[in-house]
Amino acid sequence: MTEALLLALGASLAWGVADFVGPWQGKTLGVLRVMLWGQVAGLALLGIVTVARGEAPGDWAVLWAAVAALSGTLGLFAFYRGMATGTMSVVAPIAGASAIVPVVYGIATGDRPTALQLAGMAAAIVGVVLAAREQQAGGRRLAAGAGLALLAAIGFGFYFPPMHAAGAADPWWSAFVFRFTAAVVVLAAVAVRRPTLRLTRWPLVVVLAVGCVDTLGNLLFAASSSHGIISVTSVLASLYPIVTVVLAAGVLHERVAGVQRVGVVLTLAGVVLISV
Description:
Blueprint: H1 2-29, H2 31-53, H3 64-85, H4 88-96, H5 100-108, H6 115-131, E1 133-136, E2 139-142, H7 146-157, H8 160-169, H9 171-193, H10 201-225, H11 230-237, H12 240-251, H13 258-275
Antiparallel strand pairs: 1-2
Helix pairs in contact: 1-2, 1-3, 1-10, 1-11, 1-12, 2-9, 2-10, 3-4, 3-7, 3-8, 3-9, 4-6, 4-7, 4-12, 4-13, 5-11, 6-13, 8-9, 8-10, 9-10, 11-13
């Protein structure tokens, strides 16, 4: 169990960094362009490792990773778009409420949440409502990017159960299947939207690094799945918004005011309580 906790926390750290740098670059370079090059980097990395290992998948359950990729990639697109239009310090915690989904799934499959986890779910829900509203001259309205952040939370939330099942079978192959499927989804979107894909050297290096770090997060979560139950590993991996919010405050000097700040704190506290 200790190994599972460390792997899940490692996934959270990797995702937190990738979910800050990726959308930050996406604001200027374009969401699909950043996502595509990130997928290319991750797929190339896992392809090399998979070939080097020389082992066939031991269980067809790794194909559950394809289902996780569909949900996770749609969630990631919504997350990037939400970050492009809203404040990172608001969008990331709302997306982090995805931790509720694996807990509910765990309850449905026999897990019993603690009082702290139930309190965390309540705090996260209230926090999302508060963080999603902002004060305007004519009254309150939905904060920019909040709707997309909610879509991201749903996409990320439904990533966890199938990816947990795939990772328990074979973390390396499940990570490869996930990245391959995600790359196909992003390529399909690129074929429809036809964005500019070329990047100069340093932006390309940064975006490729983001793809590798995000892939590391997927691999660490898949590896944690073979050592711990979903209601533990998934919610610990959902702590990534804390990293993103800290980076947004330290690097971009983002500030949120009033009720939204309370909502952000409540949402993050809720995710922590769910993890406890």
